[in-house]
Design a protein that fits this description.
Elements: H1 5-23, E1 34-37, H2 41-44, E2 45-47, H3 51-57, H4 61-80, H5 82-93, H6 97-108, H7 115-125, H8 132-139, H9 151-179, H10 183-191, H11 196-221, H12 228-234, H13 240-243, H14 246-256, H15 260-289
Antiparallel strand pairs: 1-2
Helix pairs in contact: 3-15, 4-9, 5-9, 6-9, 7-12, 9-11, 11-15, 12-14, 14-15
């Protein structure tokens, strides 16, 4: 404590933040086991035990929400996770500096935009009237597609837009990991006659593997917790059957229908599933790769 007192003082704002905004609100989870009334307060509301959990598990919405949340998270992980890695490796191999910096800037730009702006751009791009995507489809002689109304297109739109908005930002993490690989390894490989592709396979990928494992664990842990902001902005009643996820369901039940206890029970179940997936991903990573978050 005495040796690291300056670092501990710098760490105080972080501790205060987590106490106030992460651990403090956990007290409110009690309402998941009560029939919460705003007028009676948390402690004054009637205790009902697992009533809201049983109601959710036996409802017709449970299977649909679980399937939609899992599929959206799974598709985002399978298709979205490798893309920043490939982008970072390709950028690392580019020798023309102006082109490399231009691609980096272009791909990183969406990270500066809010989810609302990103979603608005997606809606404009896919508009059947003036959207650039549909104009191109019409130009090549095909019929325009109502992407945001047709249920079969929603998941594709979500995953592709998610890759577009996050790939550049995440690629920087892998570029930083690649920069930590000793240049002498590449020089030795060239002397031995290794091609650039073999150098990538035997030097670059093993060199960034610890970073890849950590990112994979974090992505897996958040897979079930599909962010509701973009889904809420993009989905419509016609796409509920494929787009409605736990977080949007909690929003509708809790804030729009003021069914706070039921929404808290659904949110707690979602958090528990996310924790189980995080622990499982960390366990598998340690078994297979010998590395994990802890």
């Amino acid at each position: 404590m005495k040796r690291d007192r300056q670092l501990l003082v710098l760490f105080i704002p972080c501790i205060v933040f987590y106490l106030l905004f992460r651990y403090g609100p956990l007290y409110g989870l009690i309402i998941a086991f009560k029939d919460y009334s705003v007028f009676q307060g948390i402690m004054g509301s009637d205790w009902v035990g697992l009533k809201h959990f049983v109601k959710f598990f036996t409802s017709d919405d449970f299977y649909l929400l679980f399937k939609n949340t899992l599929l959206l998270g799974f598709y985002s992980l399978i298709f979205g996770f490798p893309f920043p890695i490939i982008l970072a490796i390709l950028l690392n191999e580019v020798r023309v500096k102006w082109f490399k910096k231009s691609v980096q800037t272009f791909t990183y730009l969406p990270a500066f935009l809010s989810v609302v702006i990103i979603s608005s751009m997606i809606i404009d791009f896919l508009s059947p009237g003036s959207g650039i995507i549909n104009q191109f489809i019409a130009w090549i002689g095909l019929e325009k597609i109502y992407f945001l109304i047709l249920p079969e297109w929603f998941r594709t739109v979500y995953v592709v837009s998610d890759i577009w908005s996050t790939a550049g930002y995440e690629a920087i993490i892998y570029l930083a990991a690649i920069s930590g690989i000793s240049p002498t390894l590449y020089e030795a490989a060239r002397v031995d006659g290794s091609s650039r592709l073999r150098s990538i396979w035997h030097i670059t990928i093993p060199g960034i593997l610890p970073t890849v494992l950590v990112m994979f664990i974090l992505k897996t842990g958040s897979m079930i917790r599909v962010g509701y902001e973009k889904v809420l902005l993009l989905y419509t009643p016609t796409t509920y059957e494929v787009a409605d996820v736990f977080s949007t369901y909690v929003y509708r039940k809790g804030l729009l229908e003021t069914n706070y206890s039921y929404a808290a029970a659904v949110g707690m179940f979602e958090a528990l599933i996310a924790m189980i997936m995080l622990l499982s991903a960390n366990f598998i990573s340690r078994k297979l790769g010998g590395r994990g978050l802890w």
